[in-house]
Amino acid sequence: MRRAVLLLPLLALGAGASALAQDGAPERSSEPRVAAREVLKMPSNCRPGDRVTVRLRPPAGLTLASMRIHVAGREVVRLTHVGSAASATVAIPPGATRVTATADSSGGQALYLSRIYGGRCPAQSEERPVVGGGED
User: Fold this and answer.
1) Looking at the 3D structure of the chain, how many domains does it have?
2) Cβ atoms of residues 33 and 109 within 8 Å
3) Using one digit for the tens of pLDDT, what is the confidence trace for 50-92?
4) Domain of 107, in residue numbers
5) The domain spanning residue 98 has which CATH number?
């Protein structure tokens, strides 16, 4: 009788270990690996203005569990379960302002893109270069 009592827990532990060994490591997600610049689009030019449109274009098979846009460190947009193209337009306060878009895919990929807008933009020089020269 004692053997049966001692044998029962050992059998239960053995069955549990077998089940774990058969399951193995969790399967990897079948979503495609992507870079942030492939999914998150933000204008890169530095034009004075008061609005910036952040575009999302996840490829087929990729669903974004969440996406957030921060303007000057403050969250202004949050989207969840984005599986197709979407966009959000945010207002930019005067002066140099950082706009950051972060996204997490359903499969665990983290995407991040950040740009600085407003403030002083490099001026487009329309002057022609001076050719030649001499002493004053």
Assistant:
1) 1
2) yes
3) 788 999 998 888 888 999 999 999 999 999 998 899 999 998 8
4) 36-117
5) 2.60.40.10
Classify residue 26: in a domain, yes or no: no
Whether the pTM exceeds 0.70: the reply is no
**Residue 42 counted as domain residue:** yes
Give the span between the Cα atoms of 105 and 83, in whole angstroms. 10
Q: Report yes or no on 127 lying in a domain.
A: no
Among the residues of 2-132, which ranges form H helices?
Answer: 2-23, 36-39
Q: Compute the half-sphere exposure of residue 107: CA atoms within 13 Å on the CB side of its CA.
A: 14
Q: How many residues does the chain have?
A: 136
Taking the C-alpha atoms of residue 1 and residue 19, their distance in angstroms, rounded to an integer, is 28
Would you call 14 helix, strand, or coil by DSSP? helix
Q: Evaluate whether residue 21 is within a structural domain.
A: no
Give the tokens for residue 104.
């997490």
